[in-house]
Amino acid sequence: MKPVDPLKTLKKFPDGFVWGVATSAFQIEGAATADGKGPSIWDTFCRVPGAIADASNGDMACDHYRLWERDLDLIADLGVDAYRFSVSWPRVRPEGTGAWNESGLDFYEQLVDGLLERGIKPYLTLNHWDLPDALQQHGGWAHRDTVHRFVEYARGMSKRLGDRVTSITTHNEPWVMATLGHESGIFAPGIKDRATAMQVTHHLLLSHGLALQALRADGVRSKLGIVLNLSPMHPASAAPEDIEKTKLEDGRLLRWYMDPLFNGTYPDDVLAYLGEDAPLISAGDMKAISVPMDFLGINYYSRAVISAAGHWDVKKSGLALTDMGWEIYPEGLTELLVRMDRDYNVPPLYVTENGGAFKDRFEDGRVHDAQRTDYIARHIAAVAEAMNQGVQMAGYMVWSLMDNFEWASGYEKRFGIVHVDYETQARTLKDSALWYRDFLRQQKAARAHTSASALSGPVTESATVLTGV
Ligand code: FCB
Questions:
Q1: pTM given for the model
Q2: pLDDT at residue 11 tops 80
Q3: In whole angstroms, how far apart are CA 171 and each of 176, 229, 375, 388?
Q4: Strands (E), 10-157
Q5: Handedness of CA 218, 219, 222, 225 (dihedral sign)
Q6: Interval 17-63: pLDDT, tens
Q7: Closest CA to 312 of 261, 358, 249
Q8: How far away, in angstroms, is 452 Cα from ligand 1 center?
Q9: Which of 175, 386, 404, 415 lies 20 to 30 angstroms, CA to CA, from 464?
Q10: DSSP assignment letter at 230
């Protein structure tokens, strides 16, 4: 497999294409009980014996709550246009209802102002999984009241920051919260019940739609959207049962979210499959869910191979795997983006997360993470290829700015382009960060020097860019 280096092969992405790095509150902030923050469901889940691979928690994480200025300098040094981060709901409203916490709100005010001072666009996510635990005690996302608490939270945050943040994402990856959090139970809040999980999907989508309506009525200027985790699904064989199962799994991961958001309906085949586990839907819900968005974020890591027999052994394909055991499959990103554009009336698309965990070695102050650089470069090339096929892309963000708390995997999996020493909290740019910085410098230089007429040309210099993949 020939490595692709877009630094050499990509001519220029269009002006206005947004390059970024992403994080989320629970994974980096630490300061779990500081300055009036309430517990989130992840604080609670981390205490469940066996829930987290290394028995760790988010109490300290990257200590970003204290080191945020240093981290913003680091982000600025990378030369990105945008920083995607999330707000910890229990930091700003500890119980999820009732009193707001001024210290928590101040933290995000400082963060946003600090980004703007450094010329970086703030991309804010409201819900990256860390629901206030107090709301979980009242049923959490399975309870319809939480929908209204979320709308209040969205309005409160947009009143504080909506004049300064470029974009507001309602939810990050509803599939993960619903399915891993409420069906398999391997993520917080650790519930194992399919009917509950499906009701959660509906409440997450409904709260998204109602929040968008409320923010628009409030006159918010930020662009509004949602972020989904999507993968192309490939059958393990040409057997009819594998193909059938693939169609269903595609329904459960992709169409279950895309159809209501863009067409105002849940897919019939999935509803039939769910039977009594299908969610309760009230009059007007579907109309609210399908309110138009300004952008759609897609988090892409790999494809899925589906077999009717159940488990698929990823090693069978012979593709290289990341440290998460996920196949490295950049062409799946092109396939996915092209399909989104073909099947749905989508607004501008962002890749809001993409990156890889690898077994990094910190040696003499350096991390030579060639695999991660190759992963990112090839996925950027895959975005370029989608654009050449006519997809309107707005931006690309690397997951993640720095190593952090990788949910049930704890600190064992490292996704950062910046290395974090959890003993000292020292940050070190890995080779992939140096590569990304150079790549962005090259893009900016091209922006400055390209004449307007050249902008209409293809993003890649030649079609050969993807042939080595
Ligand atoms: C995504 C999450 C993100 C991170 C990456 C690896 O599902 O949104 O927080 O954990 O996976």
A1: 0.95
A2: no
A3: 11, 11, 26, 29
A4: 18-22, 82-86, 121-127
A5: positive
A6: 999 999 999 999 999 999 999 999 999 999 999 999 999 999 999 99
A7: 249
A8: 37
A9: 415
A10: -
